[in-house]
Amino acid sequence: MKKSALLAIMLFIATQLAFPQGKYEGSFGVTVNEGWGFKFRYGNNLQFGVSQIFYQGSPLLTGIEICGHFAGKQMYGTQKAFYLLAGAGSTIFAKGYSTFEKTVIYPRVGRTINFTGHLGLNLDLGIDLLFDKALTGSLSVFPTGSANFFFRF
């Protein structure tokens, strides 16, 4: 059993070295105005993903995102350095809120910084367009940004 586990780990490391940048990306970070969260994306220069933001330890916004990398070169991999991000999140699993009580659309522009072929940092700035059914359907606009450490596999 130990030999097969060691062999599996060695094969995983070998494939990671042979194929330096995968299409799957998992990340953890913080977002201004919302809290901290996790993201999972699939793709290279065009990525599709899901996100879960937490506030005070409870789920707040569950979202979907599309991210297009468009310019700049990276030292590691083929993904472009700069990106446009379009996302939408809502209070689907949030405690204390009804489903879709708060919905946020968040367009952003950002920069990917690779530390290695698998580790890096995504930094972005943009705005939050908050639609709040509890406040009679009002729309609020806030500046926002995020910093997310990622691992590609």
Description:
With 153 residues, the chain is mainly beta. The protein is 11% helix and 60% strand. It contains one helix and eight strands. Strands 1-2-3-4-5-6-7-8 form an eight-stranded antiparallel β-barrel. The model has no long low-confidence stretch (mean pLDDT 87).
Which keywords apply here?
eight-stranded antiparallel β-barrel, 153 residues, mainly beta
Q: DSSP strand (E) fraction? A: over 45%
Radius of gyration: 18 Å
Using DSSP, what is the number of strands?
8
* Span between termini: 25 Å
Oligomeric grouping of the chains: single chain
Count of helical regions: 1
Structural class: mainly beta
Helicity range: 10-25%
What does this entry show, briefly?
11% of the residues lie in helices and 60% in strands. The chain is built from one helix and eight strands; from the N terminus they run αββββββββ. The mean pLDDT is 87.
Itemize the secondary structure elements and their pairings.
Elements: H1 2-18, E1 24-31, E2 35-43, E3 46-55, E4 58-71, E5 82-90, E6 102-114, E7 119-132, E8 138-152
Antiparallel strand pairs: 1-2, 1-8, 2-3, 3-4, 4-5, 5-6, 6-7, 7-8
